[in-house]
Amino acid sequence: MSVIRVCFLGTPDFAATHLKMLLADDHYEVVGVVTQPNRPAGRKMQLIPSPVKILASENNLPTITPENLRKEPEAFEIIKSWKAEVAVVVAFGQILSQEFLDSFEFGAVNIHGSLLPKWRGAAPIQRSIEAGDKITGVSLQKMVKKLDAGAVIGDRKVELNDQITATELYAQLAVFGCDLLHIELMDYIRGNLAPRPQDEAEVTTAKKIEKEESVLDWNQSAVSIHNKIRAFTMGPGTYVMFQGKRLKIHRTTVSDADTMGIPGKIFEISAFELVIQTGKGQISLLEVQPESKSKISVSDLIKSVSLKKGDLFV
After folding, report:
1. Regarding the domain delimited by 4-206, which CATH topology (the fold level of the hierarchy) does it fall under?
2. For residues 87 and 20, what is the distance between their CA atoms, to the nearest angstrom?
3. Where would you tag: which of 8, 164, 210, 259 has the fewest CB atoms within 10 A of its CB?
């Protein structure tokens, strides 16, 4: 079979990792790239190109940055002029039209950060960790108009421990996603692999994470709080109000999963340990970040504030 012409759509680092793999694979020729427009970032809110746009520019790839591909027919005409045989979509960030999906000989495929049909939606990696899943993974699916509902071409499973963060899992899944493009996508294009339909009875939804979810509630269980902290490392992070200011919580461990007591009460404090009672169980703070300051260990926090066992951590 001749080299497959690819139209690549993606935006963040996760997507750039997959684009880099396609560029290195002799079975594929990336003939054009679609990514999100430059967005403001940093303290000065300067317009910054996406990681995918930067990589595309470094490799002299034709690139377009439509604000809304469905509403910009001129962008779609450019894409059609590339004469790609398949579209590879990885964290692009826009909903695609049926006309777009139907415009490629082998259709459009998508790398999704879960074992579909579980965790369809915007935040599969974070919601999986927040839910305390022990196994997750990454899927390669044939795209259809309904969100993340296409038949699965292949997947890779990952076992999760109770300390892995979304940021760490994100990096692992990017490696496995590249493997799916290298092996399963080519098998599918060659006609050696038939996608399997998803079981609609097994669907769960990974809704978009809202900023207001960042605040932690000591009334929840220690396990739930710990899982949310791990999940939100990719953004927007988590915090509690402590002495009238936000205190970001970056790393914790569950000291006890079952004990009951007054939520928010300091159960144990020493030079190196700060254990908080929750609605169920106790959680040990390991790494925090005071408002407008750098990340510090909990031992440094203990040195800088007046706290004792029995105080409420508020």
Report:
1. Rossmann fold (3.40.50)
2. 15
3. 210
User: DSSP letters along 51-89, please?
Assistant: HHHHHHHHTT--EE--S-GGG-HHHHHHHHHTT-SEEEE
**Residue 44 pLDDT:** 75
CA torsion sign for 205, 206, 209, 213 is: positive
Q: Please write the tens of the pLDDT for every residue from 41-50.
A: 777 788 999 9
pTM of the model: 0.93
182-229 pLDDT per residue, tens: 999 999 999 999 999 999 999 999 999 999 999 999 999 999 999 999
Q: Hey, do 4-206 and 211-304 end up sharing a CATH topology, with the first three levels equal?
A: no
Cβ(314)–Cβ(241) below 8 Å? yes
Residue showing tokens 């579209």: 87
Report the pLDDT value the prediction gives residue 194, as an integer from 0 to 100: 96
Instruction: Convert the pLDDT of each residue in 126-138 to its tens digit.
Output: 999 999 999 999 9
DSSP 110-143: EEESSSTTTTEES-HHHHHHHTT-SEEEEEEEE-
Contact 218, 285 (CB under 8 A): no
- Beta-sheet strand order (sheet of 86-90): 63-64, 28-34, 4-10, 86-90, 108-112, 135-142, 152-159
Over the Cα atoms of the chain, what is R_g? 23
Determine phi and psi for 3, rounding to 5 degrees: -60, 135
Query: The tokens 């604000």 sit on which residue?
Result: 67
Domain positions in the chain: 4-206, 211-304
Question: CA–CA separation, 241 vs 62, rounded Å?
Answer: 48
CB atoms within 10 A of CB 13: 15
